[in-house]
Amino acid sequence: MNIDLHCHSNVSDGLLSPSELVCRAREKGVGVLALTDHDDVGGLVEARAAARIHGMRLIDGVEISVTWRTHTIHVVGLNIDAHHHRLCEGLRGIRHGRIERAKRIAMALGAHGIKDSLEGAYAFAGNPQLIGRMHFARFLVDAGHARNLKAVFKKFLVKGKPGYSPHQWVELGEALQWIRAAGGIAVLAHPGRYNMGAGTMRDLLVEFKALGGGAIEVVTGSHRAEQFPVFAKYSVTYGFLASRGSDYHGPGESFTELGGLPELPAMCEPVWRDWL
Ligand code: AMP
Ligand code: MN
Ligand code: MN
Ligand code: MN
C-alpha cells in the first residue's frame, strides 16, 4: 500500500485544488493520502469528496507553523477532527499573523526596490486567507527577479536576505494541545531541515515527546536520501512512530512526486500502524 501523509493544495501554498491533488495521487498509485495544508483545514471537505469518488482513503491533516526557541518548525497533525473549535480558532490566529507578516514582507521588498509585491503575491494565492512566502516566491519568479523557486529562496525571503521578516508563530506546546484536543497525532515534520546541531535536535525531540508528540517524519521529500536512516534511528531511540510523506506542492515545483518515496526503513514503527 502506497501511503503519503504530507502534501499541499492551493488552500495553502500548493498549486492544485484539493480534488486535483487527490486525483493525481490516485493516478500515482497512492492508496492512503493525508492532505496537510499549512495552518488551514479548508481543503479537507473537497478532498474527502474526491477521495470517495476515487476509492481512496483520506486522512484529515494540517501542518502547523510553530516557533520553538529561535527556530521555525512545522508540526503535522494527522487524523484530526477538522471541526474542533480550539484547533480551528488557533489556526485562524496563525492565518491572521500571516496576513500581517505578508505586509511586512512587502514593505521589506519595497525598500529593496520591488514594488507591489503584496498584490503580486495575492495574485498567486488560491486562498486569500492563507498567504505565505511561496506566493511571494512565485510572484518574484514571474516578475523576473529570479530564475526559479530554488533561486528565489536563495536571494530573497530567507534570513539575511531582502524580503525576510522574522515572525512569531504559535508555541510548540500550544500547537500540540490543539492537535491532541482534536483527537489527532502530532508528527514533527521534516526534522532534518531545521539546521540544528545534534544537541539542539535532541532537546527538540525530548521536548516534543514530553509535550505529547507521537511521531516524526523519517521518509519525506524534504529530507535527502542519506537522512532517511538517520531519522529512522532517531525515531527508534526516542520512541516515536515514523511517518512518510512527499511534501508535494505541485507539478514542476516538487522534486518528489505524490507517493514517490521509498518505503520506511524496516526498523521504523509506521504511524499508520493502528489505522489500517
Ligand atoms: P511560510 O510558511 O509562508 O514561511 O513558507 C514556507 C514554505 O515556503 C515551505 O512550506 C515551502 O513550501 C516553501 N519554501 C521554504 N523554503 C524554501 C526553499 N528553500 N525552496 C523552496 N521552497 C521553500
Ligand atoms: Mn509549503
Ligand atoms: Mn513544512
Ligand atoms: Mn509541507
Can you walk through the features of this model?
The protein has helices at 18-27, 44-54, 85-111, 117-123, 133-142, 149-155, 172-181, 198-210, 227-238, and strands at residues 2-4, 30-35, 57-68, 71-78, 170-171, 185-188, 215-220, 241-245. By secondary structure, it is of the alpha/beta class. Strands 1, 2, 3, 4, 5, 6, 7 and 8 form an 8-stranded mixed sheet that branches. The chain is globular, with a radius of gyration of 18 Å. The termini are close together. The protein binds adenosine monophosphate and manganese (II) ion (3 copies). One manganese (II) ion is lined by residues 63, 74, 189-190. Adenosine monophosphate binds at residues 13, 38, 65, 132-134, 149-150, 153, 249.
Please outline what is shown here.
This protein is of the alpha/beta class and 276 residues long.
C-alpha geometry? globular
Q: Structural class of the helix and strand makeup?
A: alpha/beta
**How far is it from the N-terminal to the C-terminal residue, by CA?**
10 Å
| CATH architecture descriptor of the largest domain | Alpha-Beta Barrel
The count of β-strands is: 8
Task: Estimate percent helicity.
Answer: 25-40%
Total discrete domains? 2
What's the SSE pattern?
EHEHEEHHHHEHEHEHE
Average pLDDT, rounded to a whole number, is 98
CATH level-4 homologous superfamily of the largest domain: Metal-dependent hydrolases
CATH topology call of the largest domain: TIM Barrel
> CATH top level of the largest domain?
Alpha Beta
> What's the helix count?
9
The small-molecule ligands in this entry are: adenosine monophosphate, manganese (II) ion
* Share in β-strands: 15-25%
What is the radius of gyration? 18 Å
Profile the largest sheet.
Answer: 8 strands, mixed
Which blocks of ≥5 consecutive residues have pLDDT under 50? Answer: none
